[in-house]
């Protein structure tokens, strides 16, 4: 059992798009945490810099306490409820957002980002800044975050 | 309960529930489950009324709404539906063909026709003109209709 909880609520998961990845022994994770797959060997809670959007992998489906070494399941395609930072612009359906604040044990928040620049999830409803709402995480469709190899036809 | 019904048929299990959006309905808007929904302005969905609305098509209504009601409805942006192919033009549709709005509105028969641009759904079977068949609505993959922000890694 993880010693923390996440403010991210997982509403629905595409089970065909779950990845499993090992957790470092010093890493504490809660179900709902945003996961960074830098190096693709040890997921960690996304660092407090927005640059971690480039290695964003998905949403933790399991928790992990410090000292535990095993694989957790991470949803790369799912619908979640997460808070929009009060400093963000208001959102309309289809807006892309990226990490703004938060970590394991503190509230995760996202902010509207410019189309084409590192978004990690789409708004699925209109949301006023400072409130929570529904988002679609979909690494494959967004083609951002931790990338899956591109394959050419034929 | 809505006061009309739609000729567009879909089963609940044929909806990708991860990709459902929620959007407010204007009080004057009447919608039926199965109506093609336009998200122009992204604040109030309306039944698509003309082919120009293909550019703001967002998905298929999963709920109805009567005039005077102000609430959020769920709209499937990725689902499998059965819909009629217009009798004119006399163009048959084969698997993989993209189709666009041809005719219909809330309370009248929805029809699509083979499209060369602004397609909003793919044929999932060969369908003769004037007949109904199975189609895949997928706003993300089709890159038609109401757009979700395009993102890039970084």
Walk me through what this model shows:
The complex is a heterodimer of chains A (154) and B (154). Chain A is mostly beta strands and 154 residues long. In chain A, 3% of the residues lie in helices and 38% in strands. Chain A contains one helix and eleven strands. Chain A has one helix spanning 139-142, and strands at residues 9-13, 18-22, 34-36, 44-45, 56-60, 71-75, 77-84, 96-103, 106-112, 121-123, 132-138. Chain A has a five-stranded mixed beta barrel. A five-stranded antiparallel β-sheet of chain A has the order 2-6-5-3-4, with no helix packed on it. Chain A is globular. Chain B has one domain. In chain B, 3% of the residues lie in helices and 34% in strands. Chain B contains one helix and ten strands; from the N terminus they run E-E-E-E-E-E-E-E-E-E-H. Chain B has one helix spanning 139-142; strands at 20-24, 36-38, 46-47, 57-61, 72-76, 78-85, 98-105, 108-114, 121-123, 132-138. In chain B, the strands form two sheets. Chain B has a five-stranded antiparallel β-sheet with strand order 1-5-4-2-3, with no helix packed on it. In chain B, a hairpin with an 8-residue loop joins strand 9 and strand 10 (132-138). Chain B starts with 19 loop residues before the first strand and ends in a 12-residue tail after the last helix. Classes of the chains: A mainly beta (154), B mainly beta (154). The interface between A and B is medium-sized, with 33 and 25 residues.
Short structural description:
By secondary structure, chain A is mostly beta strands.
């Amino acid at each position: 059992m993880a010693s923390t909880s996440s403010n991210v609520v997982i509403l629905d998961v595409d089970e065909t798009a779950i990845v499993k990845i090992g957790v470092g022994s010093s890493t504490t994770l809660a179900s709902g945490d945003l996961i960074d797959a830098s190096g693709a060997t040890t997921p960690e809670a996304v660092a407090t810099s927005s640059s971690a959007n480039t290695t964003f992998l998905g949403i933790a489906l399991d928790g992990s306490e410090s000292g535990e070494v095993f694989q957790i399941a991470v949803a790369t395609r799912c619908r979640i409820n997460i808070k929009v930072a009060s400093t963000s612009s208001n959102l309309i359906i289809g807006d892309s957002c990226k990490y703004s604040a938060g970590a394991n044990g503190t509230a995760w928040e996202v902010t509207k980002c410019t189309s084409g620049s590192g978004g990690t999830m789409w708004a699925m409803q209109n949301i006023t800044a400072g409130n929570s709402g529904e988002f679609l995480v979909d690494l494959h469709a967004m083609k951002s975050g931790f990338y899956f190899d591109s394959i050419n036809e034929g | 309960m809505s006061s009309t019904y739609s000729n567009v048929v879909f089963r609940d299990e044929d909806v990708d529930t991860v990709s459902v959006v929620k959007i407010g309905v204007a009080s004057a808007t009447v919608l039926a489950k199965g109506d093609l929904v336009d998200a122009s302005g992204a604040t109030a969905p309306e039944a698509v009324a003309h082919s120009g609305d293909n550019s703001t098509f967002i998905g298929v209504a999963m709920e109805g709404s009567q005039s005077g009601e102000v609430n959020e409805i769920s709209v499937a942006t990725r689902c499998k539906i059965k819909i009629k192919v217009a009798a004119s033009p006399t163009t048959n549709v084969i698997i993989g063909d993209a189709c666009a709005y041809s005719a219909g509105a809330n309370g009248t028969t929805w029809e699509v026709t083979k499209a060369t641009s602004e397609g909003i759904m793919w044929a999932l079977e060969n369908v003769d003109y004037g007949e109904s068949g199975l189609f895949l609505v997928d706003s993300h993959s089709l890159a038609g209709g109401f757009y979700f922000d395009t993102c890039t890694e970084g």
